Amino acid sequence: MNRSLKIFFCVVILFATAFSLRIYNISTAPSGIGVDEASFGYNAYSILKTGKDERGIQYPLIFEANGDQKLPMYAYSLVPFVKLFGLNNLSVRLPSVIAGSIMGIILFFLLLELGYGIKLSFVGSFISITSPWSLILSRFGYESNVALLFFITGLYFSFLAYRKQSILLAIFGGLCMGATWFSYIAYRPVTLSILIVFSAVYFVKRKRITTVGLALLISFLIIVSPFIISLFSKQGTARLYQSGYVANLGIVMNINENRAYCSNQFPKILCYASANKPLFYIHKYISRYVEAVSTSYLFITGEKDFKYMNVDDYGLFYSALIPLYLLGLLSFGYRLLNHKQTKLDLILLAGLIVAPLPAVLVGDPQKVRLTPLFPFIILILVFGLQYLDELLKSNLYKRIFYSLTLIGVTVFTIFFMVNFLAIHTQKHETTYGTYIPKLMRYLNQQDKNTKIYIRSITEAIDFYVFTNKTDPDVFQKTVKRMKPDAIGFALPINVENVYIAEQDIYKTYCKTIQNHEKALYVTNEDFRETLGKEQKIIWSENGVDTLAFIYNLNSLDKSKFDCIKLQK
Fold it and tell me: What strand order describes the sheet that includes 492-495?
């Protein structure tokens, strides 16, 4: 079998495997909907119907949702799928499914371009498409997964452009890198840094600035230019201030407390030198970085307390791959320490240093924010595979090794998918919001003259308009929002007859009675013993847990409410 035919079969196997793992039960595993998925989906629906986002802005470059800025790539990529399949889980998740499926193919060609053989490139790509990291990202509407595809594609065409000295390929590589800036914010410092290192490495080799390098950088800068100014705005740094330690007042209080204790025994100057913000940040960021690249996080635990994107007892890769990772690190470290590094090693080093930074700056390691690190971890695993390949002199032993690796990864993948589809999503269905579509459809069936107050779901408006496909024109004209926060974001609190409840059930009841209104109150609190029978309970799919109570405020026991006292 010639090389081209082998490559063709590898591509077919990779795509078929990746796509089947991602598309299977995509609408119902889980059957709930994430708030970002609902927001992206409804904005795409609004663009399709009106040419405007939910705020009424025509074809925006930035979408505002859930107190945060959302980049436009994923929202616009949803539009044709919403057109074809309607506004639902399938259409919202399909771009991510497709991106994750194509990613394995591009990675395969990237590994080939880097000089690895077909077998090594295929196994490395197979590990990537079957990893829990990629599978989880691809089965939800995560914009980071689309960004990852652009990033790997950009890397591939950048290497290809330098080898072939093609300006056209360089332009395409720069555009793909730039496209990450339209997709997910974590890629902004990473792509810029990688391209600078990329250009510097090849500049040192050739002793001159090449037209290919210029084409790569200029095409990148042109496409990202709309975002450069916004980087320094309040909105542009919103995520850092919302999620990072920079604006955490608790840290300041903790430091001051430590200084006070210290001052009882030591001079103030020593206490201030040992307890301060710079030292705290350095310690915290280093510990987070170490965790992000540790075998424990990558292969065993993942995000232990974040059930939405992490299956119990699984890391981001399968634990059986730990030996490959350690061998890859040893191989990589040996070349660096003995000054035998290649251009790829220098670019990989830059990637390992820079890629985790956007994630560790805003919180603990998390696979969504860490996606820029993904291709570099795969490269480390490939180094490990290559090391063992070189140890095995016999072709027979090599075939056995590759076969056992593929079989092992396949078995682990089957176990993971069974766990995710049949156990995890049901065990943690509250986390996945499986009850939300059922709840929102029920609320939509109520008399439109009945006010509906929702207490327990902060993003209830997003879920309501998504589930019930609220007319975007109606939404844009009738939506009411809270006062903008310090950054300038304003969450929706009312559309049509649905309100985010700002008061508890007692005050809301008194307001309802006073205004002679018909009203329902939705909460996760059980008031049945004190206030009387509920109108409806929304149960978990397994029928065990009560996830939402709907009370008819007009039929509650009036003797339980002292409205005069509450008004005081």
Answer: 480-481, 492-495, 498-500, 450-454, 518-523, 546-552, 536-539
Cα angle 434, 436, 438; round to 5: 90
Note whether 110 and 157 are within 8 A (CB). Answer: no
| Cis, peptide link before residue 30, omega less than 30° from 0 | yes
CA pair distance 475, 469, nearest whole angstrom: 10
Q: Looking at residue 313, what is its pLDDT?
A: 87
Contact 15, 101 (CB under 8 A): yes
Going by the DSSP 8-state scheme, the letter that residue 338 receives in this structure is T
Nearest to 321 by CA among 102, 118, 128: 128
Percent of the chain with pLDDT over 90: 53
pLDDT level of residue 227 (50, 70, 90 thresholds):
confident
- Tell me if 299 sits within 8 A of 321, measured CB to CB: yes
* pLDDT at position 567: 62
Residue whose C-alpha is closest to residue 414's, from 134, 12, 130: 130
- For 21, 346, 374, 405, 566, the CA distances from 10, given in Å and listed in that order, are 17, 29, 21, 16, 70
Q: Indicate the pTM of the whole model.
A: 0.91
Task: Give the C-alpha distances (Å, rounded to integers) separating 302 from 62, 130, 311, 381.
Answer: 31, 16, 8, 18
Half-sphere exposure of residue 429: CA atoms within 13 angstroms, side-chain side:
25
Give dist(CA 511, CA 561) in Å, integer: 11
Other beta carbons within 10 Å of 83: 14
Cα distances (Å, whole numbers) of residue 299 to 296, 315, 412, 550: 6, 4, 12, 43
Radius of gyration of the chain measured on its C-alpha atoms: 27
List Cβ neighbours of 8 (8 Å cut-off, separation of 6 or more): none
Looking at per-residue confidence, does 253 or 239 come out higher? 253
Selection from 179, 188, 175 nearest residue 216 by Cα: 175
CB atoms < 10 A from the CB of 247, how many? 13
> H-helix or E-strand containing 522?
strand 518-523
Q: Report d(CA 482, CA 489) in Å as an integer.
A: 9
d(CA 131, CA 136): 9
In the structure, what pLDDT confidence band is assigned to residue 154 with cuts at 50, 70 and 90? Answer: very high
Task: Give pLDDT, residue 450.
Answer: 93
| Tens of pLDDT, residues 252-273 | 777 777 777 778 787 877 777 7
